Amino acid sequence: MNGILAGQVVRAGRPGQPAWTPVFIAFLAYAFVILTYRVPIGTAVMAAALMGLILQRHAVRVPTFLWLYAAWLGWSGVGLVTSDYSEAVQLTLIEQIKVLLVALVAANALRTGTQIRHFMIFMLVSYVLFPVRSTLVNYFITGNTLFGRAIGPFIYSNPNDLAALTILMLGPTLALWASAPRGSLVRWAGVAGAAPLILVIVLTQSRGGFLALATIAFPSAVTLARRRPRAAIGFAALLALGLYLAPAGFWKRMQGLEKGTSVATISQMDPEGSAGQRFAVLQTALRIVRDHPILGVGLGAYGLANARYNPALGDLDTHNTYLNVLAENGVPGLILFFALVISVLRTVHDTRRRVRRALPAQAEMLRWLEIGLIGFLIAAVFGSQSKLALFYVYLALLWCTSRAVRAQIPPASPAAVPLPFPLDRTMTAVDRRPGPGDPRSRPA
Questions:
Q1: Mean of pLDDT values over 352-370
Q2: How many other β-carbons are positioned within 10 Å of the β-carbon of residue 168?
């Protein structure tokens, strides 16, 4: 076993690059901050990472999605000039420029297969030990829930955001499980990590999380059943365990989805009335989009605009990533947002196609990372996650993994080079001898 799974150093260039570089160490510290929210040292460690990035010997890598992200923020800067909420937009724009720098560091910190593998394990351990553990303690021990729905600390206090981020974390977790060698510690870590993640998604009772999980689970199970039947059984068992442990409120909430097919019954989807409130916000957001179709109301200003358009709702958010981007940045902003995501997905898809036969384990790893992103994008219909730093770090992880895997593609052997014209299999050895007019018949 070579490359990423065995922990060897893989780089598209000079071999033997050390894994524990100053940039990588500082980036791990920052990842711990945005995953756990336990220590307020994010600015300090990111400053150290940027300094290491400047002093490193390697050229700085700037993926296409970062250029598109910068273009999106540039368009938001244009909207700042025309926005009625310039102060809020300016503050949000500054924060998003910081996120852009974070993604730039991520794209340069994860240069080798060893670094990528260590980072995925680090993400899994940090997420399980802190937000997942806190969520399970809140639900089963202290009873700290939101109308019976599991919640965690800090940013994870919103069940829909918690479900979406947990689905995102399923990507590297299942990538470790599906691609590591059988019996290895990394493979067992993936199995052990996936179980509580699926349980947390179910306990949040998030309709978006459930739809995302169901959407990615069925095709994944079918693909595994064809290639690795035992792995398919294990994956199905994990899902079954999570659904078995689901509370009665989960099934009642999922049954409410049938009420969402009619405007007259949408307010009956849940007892707390969140669906009806979402529908009112949706109507308000569409009014905002009609009035500001090009520049929007400004990055981070939707809540203020919502309160102005519908004072009864207050400064509620859209609870929809794509509608939020459309309302805040207009149609061009939404196009740029889709473009930066699609650019990463296209890169990953192309790499998977190239290495599918030569490096099947690495292709499997990329597939699960891609599935995690797709699940998150589906869940984002029920939450506003376009400004989360972890989302762009994940995009950088996908791009870096694709780059490292592509560097492992073995060079084409001379035997694999096609002939100028195919030989007929029925030709005999005598038939293949050069004729009088063939250049090969001339004496040397």
A1: 92
A2: 26
d(CA 3, CA 365): 12
How far is CA 236 from each of CA 114, 130, 195, 211, 406, rounded to the nearest angstrom?
30, 26, 11, 16, 31
- Backbone angles phi and psi of 256, in degrees to 5: -70, -10
C-alpha torsion sign, points 21, 23, 26, 32: negative
Phi-psi region of 435 (alpha: psi -120 to 50; beta: other; left: phi over 0): beta
- Phi, psi values for residue 150, rounded to 5°: -65, 140
Pairwise CA distance, residues 79 & 125, whole Å: 40
Q: What is the DSSP string of 291-354?
A: HSTTT-S-TT-HHHHHHHH-TTT-S---S-HHHHHHHHHHHHHHHHHHHHHHHHHHHHHHHHHH
Instruction: HSE, CB side, 13 Å, CA atoms: give it for residue 187.
Output: 13
Model confidence at 40: pLDDT above 80? yes
Where in the chain are the domains? 22-407
Q: What is the pLDDT of residue 230?
A: 67
Asked if 375 and 96 count as a contact pair (C-beta separation under 8 A), the reply is no
Alpha helices in 37-112 (DSSP H): 42-55, 64-82, 86-109
Instruction: Answer whether 169's CB lies under 8 Å from 123's CB.
Output: yes
Q: Write the CB contacts of 154 (distance below 8 Å, at least 6 apart in sequence).
A: 37
Query: Residue 37 — left, alpha, or beta (φ > 0 → left; ψ -120 to 50 → alpha)?
Result: left
How many Cβ atoms sit within 10 Å of the Cβ of residue 426? 6
Q: What is the pLDDT of residues 371-408, one digit of tens each?
A: 999 999 999 998 999 999 999 999 999 999 999 999 98
124-169: pLDDT as tens digits: 999 999 999 999 999 999 999 998 899 999 999 999 999 999 999 9
Choose among 128, 120, 1, 202: nearest CA to 368.
Answer: 120
d(CA 267, CA 284): 16
Burial of 404 (0-12, 13-18, 19+ CB in 10 A): buried
The Cα 101–Cα 73 span in angstroms is: 12
d(CA 297, CA 307): 13
What are 145's strand-pairing partners? 150
Residues ≥6 apart with Cβ < 8 Å to 402: 347, 348, 351, 366
